[in-house]
Structures are given as structure tokens and as C-alpha cells.
Amino acid sequence: MPFARVIVAEKPGVARAFALYLSGGRYELRKVAGVPVYVFKQGESLHASVGVRGHLMDFDFPREYNSWRRVDPLELFEVEPVRVVREGMENYVKALQALARFTDTVILALDADVEGEAIAFEVMDVMRRVNPRLRFLRAWFSAVTREDIIDALRNLRAPNANLANKAFARMVLDLTIGAAFTRTLTLIVEKRGALPRGRFLSYGPCQTPVLYLVVKRAIERENFQKKKFFQISATVRIGRYQLKMRHDLKYEKREDAERVAQELLRARNGLVTAASYVKRIVEPPEPLATVEMERRASRFLNIRAKRAMDIAEDLYQEGLISYPRTDTTIYPPTLNLRAIAAKFAAHEELGEYVRKVILSAPQLRVRQGKESDGAHPPIYPLRYASRDEVVKRFGLEGWKLYDLVVRHFLATLSPPMVVEDQSVEVEIARIKLKAEGLKVLEPGYTIVYPFERPQESALPHVERGAQAEVLSVKVVEAETRPPPYLSEAELLRLMRKYGIGTDATMQDHIHTNVERNYFKIVRKQCIPTPLGRAVIAALSEVAPEVVSPEVRGRMEAMLKAIAEGAKDPEEVVQAVKKEFYTYLLRLKSAEEKIAPILLSAVKAVYQPSRGSPAPKSS
Question: Does residue 144 sit within a domain?
């Protein structure tokens, strides 16, 4: 049966949404090659909508280069990878080719980002093989709502080859570099009998610099030299108030601190030499971009970054939030923020605040950021859904993330918080004691965004020159603290700083390291394993560039230039290959030097002491 148009979405849920909104709910579900296809009418013409579940194609080496033992990893830099159907996607290819025979127009409704554009070109390649006369048009949208879908179909555009070429260049480079270094590291250990068959030591051009950041912080922590010191704390009466105060100096010897403490007790009385109470404005958070959403999900909700992105994708497909892959922190002028906020006027918990604070203002007070990816708005909620509705569909974590997005959006339309920074200083026997406090004067946006509400420790208001009397003094023993392990939130911030990965892939690089048993995330902290440390130690010894965040960041900048049309993709691929070829030469020539580092860690994992079972690989 001929179709006027075939719509190809990136996910089945989005394909169903197109059918739902374009047919008014009157669609039929069919199966083509086992793949769900939504068939519906618009007027007298028949249409079909299908979702493909991500990339259809992968890059791989020709079959003769897939033997790890017979092919020198250096040869991989000279080979042109070929495109193959991704495992598990065979039926989707068959379904697209079957549909291609019954239409002349295809709407590419893939996700509106670089990866989506690459998948669009894969779809075009697959469908043109059976129908070279097909016409392809691109639908670009940031939310799965009726309005956004219809608007996208009214403003169809040509597919963007530059965006797709950026993704394909990255795939080729990550395959080549990752395979060459993974094979080299694995073979160094395997031929010395320390690695069971089927196991391997992986390297990734993004994965490994992420591991480096985690290991670097752990080493800084372990090398930190703790120092014991002694401080003086005191209870001081000022008028009718009693304040806990401290002496800022740190003493290496207890006797020195005890001597000062005795001086305070002997003198007893002094004066308030400074009393400061300064108002400070705390602005609401900037509109929500992808990496910041993942950071806040980890920090505030204890939801891992990858899990947060998976949930966000589900919420997006259900039409609860806008497209969750964005670098933008600026609301576009075309976005009706007041209308979006009004959807939450009936919110069971936040509705009164929305009505009285946000909607009652004659003009919205909007917090804006400074970054725009030119493609998508920040992440914002599309409609109100009750806790029960979201929990039933997406579980408790789904509700927590949806609630975070709602609260974050409302916070960006809210007044700032006003706090008072407080400080009181007393001088007794020429010894200064100090107390610091904080008081929230106006909670502002933290009413709806309690995650950023500070813990108050308010001081009484006292006057400069007031009498002060020491009531008690004690010497407190303490020690300097090492830096903490990197949290996942901090790791994401560093990845963004160095340009490691994209908003769509950063959480995947963290997850890959965890799967490879290179580091663990325990109570939000990233803790490297001995195996992860060994990989970084070995590579850093002979080719530190391959673990360097700056080198990967430079690669990302070159890939970005492809998307902007400023660089030829083949030139970028060849330049980066040439660079990493020299690094691999260095690594191979230093095999005898680094083998003991790797062997020690690998044996600990795969040849544990008798009675201790070897851990399962991820």
C-alpha cells in the first residue's frame, strides 16, 4: 500500500507520538519485519511512522583485520574502516527498506543533534539502496508535543551533512585509536599468560582521560601530608548573648595553644572590635543544560549520570520534558515562559507559589545563562504530571528527576535569595577571636528549589565597642584534610571544562570505566581500582598524551570545526590518526618497561589468592 510520507524517528515512542498527534489518535499498529510501524491517515492520504532505536550502522575493520594476534595494531591506522549494520538492527534495516518501496518522501524525525543527524544519513543510505528516487526532508524539534511536532513539519529542512560528518569522523577515530591501543595493552599482558581468554584491557580516547582525572585526584589524596595542629575555641558573652568563637591561628605545638588559652582566661574581658552584617543577593540557577542536569541529579538526588540521562530520555519521549541533550542556558524569546509556568498553577505543592510569586508579577524575572548551542533551548517541563502518575510510569527516580526539572525551571523565574553574611570579632589581651554566621533574610527561589537553601547559623546583632567576657576556653586538636575523591558531579564539571565527550556521551564514558572495573562510584565518590591505576600508570610512563584531557579536548575542538564547516572531515581524521600513531609506536617500544605495571594489577584481578573468587567482568 503506498504511503504519501514515511516518518522515521529515533525511538518508537517518538514515532508513536507523530502518529498520535497527526491522526488525532486514530492510527493502526502494524509490524514490518517484526518492527512496530504506526499507520494513519491525513485527509485521503496514508502515512507511516517508525522508530529505529538509535544508530543503524557501526564502523568496523575489514574482516581480515579483526585477528588481534595476526595483525599489528599499528596497521589499523592505515586501514579505512567500513560501515556495517549494527548488531541487533537487522530487522530495522529490513523494515526501512520495505517501507522505502512504497513511498517517495521520507521525513527524517531523528533527534535534533549531531548523533541524530548521523542516524538520519544512515537511514538515507539504507532506504536509497532499494529506492534511489526517494526525497528526504529533516524535521527538527526539541519537544515531543503536538505543537512542536506540527511546527517541525511546517518547517522542514535539508539534512545537514556537516553535523553528520562530525559524528562519523568521531566514530572512525574512536574505533581506530581505541582498537589499536586496546589490542596493544591486551596483548602485552596476554602473551605473558596473565589474562584469561576473552578478557581484555580497554582504552578509549574519551574513556581513558576520564579515568586519568579520577586517578590523578586519588594520587593527590594519597600523597597529601596530614599535619596535626591545635586551635583555640571559646565561649564569649556579649551583653545577653553567648557566642561560640575561635582564634584563627593554628599552632603546631599544644603547649603554645595552651599558653594563649591561659592568657585569655587571665584577662577575661575585652571589646567587640568588629561587627559586620552584610546583605548578599544569591541569584537563582541558570536554565538547565544536559551536563548540569546530570551533575545536579548526582549531587542532589544521588542518581548516577547515565541513569539520569536514561530517565530524561524516557520523560522526553512521554512529552513531560523538552529535549534533554542541550548545551544551551538561554531561554529563546520564542518560548512562552509565562504559559509554561501557568501549567503548574494547580501543582499540588508548588501551585500557590506559582500563582502568587511568578504569575502575579507584571513582568517575569528571568534568569538567563550565557551559552547557546544554536539548536535547542534549555531543558524545561512541558506539562504538569502528578507524583502518582510519574511514579507509576517511571518509578521513584523518574519522579525525582522530573520534579528536579520542574523546580529548576520555576527557580529560574523566581526572585533571588537574600542572605546576611555575619561576622563578629572580639579582642581580649590582644588576642582576636572570631565568629561567622549566615542568616536567610528572604528565601526567594529556594522556596521551590530547596536543594540550594543554605543551613543557617545566625549570630546575634551586637555593636562594635561592646564589652566581651570569656566564659570558657578549650584547645582543640585537629589535622589538615586531604582533598576528597572526585565526585561524579565534579568529574562531569571537569569533563565539560576540558571538552571530553559531548553532552550526549559524557555519562557513557563514566559508565564505561565502571563497567571495565577501572573505577567504582561509592557514596557519590569516584574511587579508582588497582587495575584502573595500573592502566594510567603504564600509559603515563611512556605516552602521557594519550591520557591527557587537554589532548582529547583538542580533538573535540577539531571535530566541532567539521560541524561548523570549517574543516574537512578526512583531513581531521588523518591528522589525528597520524598523531596517535606516534604515541602507539612509543607505547610498543616500551613494552618491557610497562609490562610489570600491568601484570601486577591484572594478576590481582584474575589470579587472586587461593580461596578468593575472581571478580566477574562487567
Answer: yes
Q: How far is CA 4 from the centre of its chain?
A: 40
Burial class (CB in 10 A: 0-12, 13-18, 19+), 365: middle
Please tell me what DSSP assigns to residue 445: G
Same domain, 270 and 249: yes
Model pLDDT for residues 483-507, shown as the tens digit of each residue: 999 999 999 999 999 989 877 788 9
Q: Which three cell numbers stand for residue 87?
A: 548488531
pLDDT for res 42: 87
Is the same domain home to 425 and 278? Answer: yes
Single-letter amino acid, residue 355: R
Regarding whether 599 and 454 lie in a shared domain, the answer is no
Binned at pLDDT 50, 70 and 90, residue 617 comes out as: very low
- Round to whole Å and give the CA distance between 47 and 112: 22
Count of Cβ atoms closer than 10 Å to residue 2 Cβ: 9
pLDDT one-digit tens code per residue, 89-137:
999 999 999 999 999 999 999 988 888 999 999 999 999 999 999 999 9
* Mean pLDDT over each residue of the chain, to the nearest integer: 93
Domain residues for the domain of 45 are 5-53+89-159
Confidence check: pLDDT of 244 > 50: yes
In angstroms, what CA-CA distances link 407 with 5, 310, 450, 558? 39, 20, 9, 37
Sheet strands side by side (includes 27-32): 27-32, 35-42, 45-51, 5-9, 105-109, 135-138
Distance CA 20, CA 144 (A): 11
Secondary structure of the chain: what % helix, strand, coil (to 5)? 45, 20, 35
Say if 595 falls within a structural domain. Answer: yes
- State mean pLDDT over 320-345: 92
Which letter, b or e, does each residue of 258-296 get, where b requires 16 or more Cβ atoms within 10 Å of its Cβ?
eebbeebeeeeebebbebeeeeeeeebbbbbbbbbbbbb
* Helical pair 506-515 and 207-223, crossing angle rounded to 10 deg: 70
Under 8 Å CB-to-CB from 259, ≥6 apart: which residues? Answer: none
Least-confidence region, from 325-329, 470-474, 528-532:
325-329
**What is the spatial distance between Cα 557 and Cα 506, in angstroms, rounded to a whole number?**
15
Structural domains of the chain, count: 4
